[in-house]
Structure formats: C-alpha cells, structure tokens
Amino acid sequence: MVNRQSRSDLLANAQFLASPHYDDRPTDADIDLLVIHCISLPPEQYGADYVEDFFMGKLDCSLHPYFQQLTSVRVSAHIYIKRDGQLIQFVPLDKRAWHAGLSEFAGQSRCNDFSIGIELEGDVNHAYTSAQYQCLATVTADIQQRYPLITQARITGHSDIAPVRKDDPGPYFDWTHYFACLDLKDN
After folding, report:
1. Cβ neighbours of residue 130 under 8 Å, at least 6 residues apart?
2. pTM for the structure as a whole
3. How much is the pLDDT for 4?
4. Which of 149, 139, 117 is nearest to 29 (CA)?
5. What is the 3-state secondary structure (H, E, C) of the chain?
6. CB atoms near residue 176 (< 10 Å)
7. What integer is the mean pLDDT of 162-186?
8. Count: domains in the chain
9. Which residues are catalytic?
10. Could you list the residue range(s) of the whole structural domain that residue 73 is in?
11. Domain assignment of residue 7, yes or no
C-alpha cells in the first residue's frame, strides 16, 4: 500500500521556493522516513541566502572559494529551517528531493525514494537554536500526520543513512530535546 494521504504537499506556514532539483518518487514508494541534515554556506557562516540559492540552482560559485566545489552539484531538500526558525520549503513532500545521496536505512537503499529531508541552517560544530527545535518539532508533527508511517524510530540523521560520507546533523544536535519538543506537540 502506498502511503499517500489526500492533502496538499506544501506546508501552510512555509515560504515556498520551487527548486528545480527534484523528480517523481517511484510509484510504489511509501514515504516512511524523515532525515535531519544541516547546511551552511560557506561552512559555519549563517544568515545569507546562499543555501536558498544553492537549492534553487542559482548559486554564484564565484562569490566564495568554497563554492567552487559546488559548481556542478544539484541537490535540494524538502524543507530548510533557518537559525531564527524561518521555514522554507523547496520541494513538495510527495516529490523526491535530492538530499540523501548514496544512502541506506534499515537495509533499504536509495533513501530519497521514501524519505523527506529537512535541512537545518547550521554545522556539526555548533549548537542549534531553540527556534529551530520548535519549528522542527512543529513541522515533524505535521509531516507525521500526513505520513503516519514516519514514527520516531523512522526519524534519523544524515550521518545514520550515509555514515561513510556524512556527519550531520552532528554531535550538537540534541535528539533528546528534539523528541521532547515533539512529544509536547503530540499532547
């Protein structure tokens, strides 16, 4: 059974910027995994619109030496949460965003096929903000209502599905606090 509810696949409280970096999921794919990531461009710098530009395919790679390695990279996430809690959606939830790359969860490869990707503005060397945890919990609760197969056991970090390649959201992501915030949303 394909887990697709009758609903809009855009979040009501998110700014929507339509990324060109997505495609259709396999028709038999159940959306049953939530992957938490982090990103900052350049690394450990916040507040600019470089991430948005990157996900939109509009990043001017001449603006910073770090960006040169991103010239031919085409990625996106469904959702991006900035340090102040601002919520931006790039890809409808029922579409396949290009966030996980080479990945595997519970023996199933190609996590983009069956997951929703949320990027937090941040990096693995710094703590996330209260506004981000609150927004993430609210968004997660909304996603879980739309896709009930996404249980707490099926919420994971990018580092868990691609451990050789990725280390995000990193040691400063407080899973206990996040799940406590999520529990408050459920009550």
Report:
1. none
2. 0.94
3. 41
4. 149
5. CCCCCCCCCCCCCCEECCCCCEEECCCCCCCCEEEEEEECCCCCCCCCCHHHHHHCCCCCCCCCHHHHHHCCCCCCCCEEECCCCCEEECCCCCEEECCCCCCEECCEECHHHCEEEEEEECCCCCCCCHHHHHHHHHHHHHHHHHCCCCCHHHEEEHHHHCCCCCCCCCCCCCHHHHHHHHHHHHC
6. 7
7. 93
8. 1
9. 119
10. 15-186
11. no
Task: Decide if 65 is inside a domain.
Answer: yes
Give the residue carrying structure tokens 């919520």. 87
- Residue 23 belongs to some domain of the structure: yes
Q: 10 Å Cβ neighbour count for 29?
A: 18
- 107 half-sphere exposure, CB direction, 13 A CA radius: 0
Give yes or no for residue 6 having a pLDDT over 50: no
Q: What is the mean pLDDT of residues 159-174?
A: 96
Instruction: Give the CA angle between residues 164, 119, 116 to the nearest 5°.
Output: 85
Provide the CATH number for the domain around residue 108. 3.40.80.10
Residue with the bigger pLDDT between 111 and 6: it is 111
Give per-residue pLDDT as tens, 54-110: 999 999 999 999 999 999 999 999 999 999 999 999 999 999 999 999 999 999 999
150: in domain:
yes
